[in-house]
Design goal:
The chain is of the alpha+beta class. It has four helices and six strands, in the order H-E-E-E-E-H-E-E-H-H.
Length: 187
């Protein structure tokens, strides 16, 4: 395989791997009944006029499977953190005792589990669309290579490899979905 063909294929694989990495991060945020500090990832607090991630202004811990504790570096940040958690609309009701904030993770109802599974499927479908777009771009590059003098056989092999790689990454995304769905539906 020519250098330009292998470069096209490796760039495509890297982009697809990034898409799967994004999917993994998104699926970690979807809770499956157990408390985890990643559930609060992405929540930003107004810290002296700057929107700052919660994990940068407080210590997050999981003392038991049903609660997350947030110990801010400065006690005067407690009401702001509480407000940010409420505004994030994650279904949590933070409890402030003046020293730290406790977030009790409610048990999932059957209906909520089904909603979470739907959300997982939407996330996976979005990543599959991204993977297919990456494939389309790689095939367009293959056509450009054909125009620049790369042999017909090389282009056919590249297109075959592109499709095979796409199928592999879509199968990996489906595997992530299966695993997360099983995790959510297990009581």
């Amino acid at each position: 395989m020519t250098e330009s063909c292998s470069s096209c294929l490796s760039n495509m694989k890297e982009d697809m791997q990034n898409a799967l990495g994004f999917l993994e991060k998104e699926l970690e945020k979807i809770r499956a009944g157990k408390a985890h500090t990643k559930m609060l990832e992405g929540i930003k607090v107004d810290y002296y006029g700057t929107m700052t991630p919660i994990e940068q202004i407080a210590s997050l811990a999981v003392p038991d499977p049903k609660q997350i504790t947030i110990q801010p570096w400065e006690k005067k940040q407690i009401p702001l953190i509480e407000k940010a958690i409420m505004a994030a609309n994650l279904g949590f009701n933070p409890q402030n005792n003046g020293e730290l904030i406790r977030v009790i993770v409610p048990a999932l109802t059957e209906e909520r589990r089904k909603d979470l599974v739907k959300k997982v499927k939407q996330e996976v479908e979005q990543v599959k669309v991204n993977i297919r777009n990456i494939r389309r771009n790689a095939n367009a590059k293959a056509k450009e290579l054909k125009d620049s003098g790369v042999s017909e056989d090389e282009i056919k092999k590249l297109e075959t490899d592109v499709q095979k790689t796409t199928d592999e990454f879509i199968a990996k995304a489906d595997k992530y979905m299966e695993t997360k769905e099983k995790e959510i539906m297990t009581i």
